[in-house]
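dumping the sequnces here before i forget
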Amino acid sequence: MTEPLLRLDNVAMHFRTKGDGFLARRNQTVQAVDGVDLTLAAGETLGLVGESGCGKSTTARLITRLLEPTAGRILVEGDDIAHLDERRLRPYRKEIQLIFQDPYSSLNPRHTVGAIVGTALRTHNLVEKGGELRRVQELLELVGLNPEHYKRYPHEFSGGQRQRIGIARALAARPKIIVADEPVSALDVSIQAQVMNLLESLRSELGIAFVFIAHDLGVVRHFCDRIAVMYLGRVVEEGPRDGLYDAPQHPYTQALLSAVPDVGVVRGVPPRQRIRLAGDPPSPIDPPSGCRFRTRCWKAQDICATQDPALIERAPAQQVACHFAAPPAASLVAEAV
Amino acid sequence: MLLYILKRVLSAISVVFVALVASFALFFLAPTDPAGVICGNRCTPERVADIRSSLGLDEPPAEQITGYIKGIFAGRDFTNGGTVQHCDAPCLGYSYSLGQPVTKLLAQAVPVTISVVIGAAVVYLFLGALLGTMAAQRRGSPSDKLLMGSAITINSIPYFVFALLVALYVTVLPHPQYTSFLSNPIAWAGGLVAAWLTLGVTNTASYTRYARASMIESLGQDFVRTARSKGISERRVVYRHGLRAALTPLATIFGIDLAGQLTGALFTESIFGLPGLGVLTLRAFNQYDLPVLMGCVLLGAVVLVVMNLVVDIVYTFLDPRVRLG
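..and the predicted 3d for all of it:
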């Protein structure tokens, strides 16, 4: 088997926190990401979904090495970048770029758009002297901004335009992988569609592989080839888009999909079966023994508390971490998705 | 920008005018009679009246102040026992105790204070920003704790005690004295080193703390994370993205501090025997030398107003979102 473009091998990120006891101060460990395996082929788009606090953004920051993992390997074309220092990491920084969730705070308000987009060009020596401005203008045009606006500052743009600046910035390094951490969730719905269309066209034109993080399952289905579902720092199900949407096997995936708003009800289509999960996800400081989902799972048995289910292939290319994995009786996906 | 500066200068003039009238009212209309103070204990009423008329104190207050303002722009004449003395255009009157024009006294004191304050400012601004940045980068580490601990210790010592300790015990430094920069730059620098270090070190302590707090905030900003993800060097991330954002609050404090020090670094000047504005003001105050005191107040008001303007203009360079107007 050839080495994929990106492979996470049993990656973990444990944050140590200081307990708040005054005398008996206990140091605790937040297991934000705990043993994640993922692969990404060239030009492929992998969706990463899960509820707040499940470790999606931490995974994004591990892939881009803004964080150093506490365990595991991060392989880019076979090279482990998990513990490289800043200098040796630099060539890989070029290959993996990040689009941030918040287009307001992630752009330096004191730098012009030209400087924001151009820094990567200079840092990685991507243009010869004098060619920087032309390339910046090309990039601005590529993302649908007026190329003459390179002298402006971020605060002179709207949210959607600022996200386009962020995308131009990410593209400047000519990356092979772009990690998009909820790139549209901070934008208005009408602008979301524009930015999604831009990402879609960039993907097909430039052949960049995407790791696309979102909690909007509709957007993910539209955009991604493969999808990984995370729960409490683990990947619980991972597979090709159609297989996962049509026949989700992990109870959590089923619950997530059934939570997507059902537009058909308005037109008189009988409502589909909906799974409601009780309670909040457990704390990642002290996750449940065995299967992490068992505390909210309606299928849970004794074995779930003692044995941690491994991620096993249950359908073609579809891996599930559940002792009782099975597709649902009826489709859970709302027709509008 | 030019229009803005013009507007600010006009408003500055009105501020200085109000300060002038207010301090004039406070000093010249106070119950103590300057003539009596000058004359001393055994003084005949005739002599007092004589002094009063020579100083123009027998005129109505409104005329005194117009005379004072006219003196600033056009110069004025003083009659003293029959002789007429002409005082040239920026005339702030004559010192009661020294008999010299106030403008001349100020002209002697201002270079001293500027030399002391600017030299120290270079020290503390540079060191403070550097140490504060280093501490912020290593937040929570032993070196951060050591830096913050020493900063708080230095800040806790009263300034005059610190300055005295330096003056008494740090004997390796050249003897403090003021030489004009133009006549001998090396002697100028040598004579001021002690003052620069003393004023510089205490202020470095506070500026390290300001810079650290400000840097911790700016390094936590999302755009700093963006900068890191671009793959630029950590030094550039910290200085080009982090420190630049952290400088705005520092500039505010620096403007106020510098204006305060420029009106006289009293302890530094008196402990190191440097005849600057602080020493001049204090002596004028003790001797009830009102014209000198007035001159110092006027100069202080001008410095404060100018510094505020400078800080506001510096903002526009530090943060392009700031619009003047």
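Chain A touches chain B through 28 residues (CB under 8 Å).
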